[in-house]
Amino acid sequence: MKLLLRVLLSALAVVILAKLLPGASVDSYLTAILVAVVLSLLNFLVKPILIILTLPITLLTLGIFLLFINAIIILLADYFIAGFGVDGIWWALLFSLLLSLLQSVLFSVLKEEDKK
Predict the structure, then answer these.
(1) Domain boundaries of the chain, sorted by first residue
(2) Where are the strands (E) in 1-116, listed by range?
(3) Of 12, 76, 77, 79, which shows the fewest CB atoms inside 10 Å?
(4) Long-range contacts of 37-44, Cβ-Cβ distance < 8 Å, separation of 24 or more
(5) Per residue in 50-91, pLDDT tens?
(6) At what angle do helices 29-45 and 2-20 cross, to 10 degrees?
């Protein structure tokens, strides 16, 4: 149940960011749910591989390159999902930063409910 709520909150965050950012678009709410699922799968499967492969440059930039790895994950989701679009690496970078921020705020609501 909690996993389903997290996916739905992530989809809500994707819809909000698509409305706010001119460089990002999502066609429907179903597409936003699909984006949330694909992003979670990419973060689980592909992101650790990218982190290991780019470890030297990540250490050289003191971890800042991890932001670009997140943007690459967003661009991969853009590639796989037809109704989701991001206009470039810089929009993907901004989208990933704002998505992380918005998800942390929304997920904190779930943690508050668990404490009660």
Answers:
(1) 2-111
(2) 24-26, 84-86
(3) 79
(4) 37/7, 38/77, 38/80, 38/81, 39/10, 39/14, 39/73, 39/74, 39/77, 40/7, 40/10, 42/73, 42/76, 42/77, 43/73
(5) 999 999 999 999 999 999 999 999 999 999 999 999 999 999
(6) 110
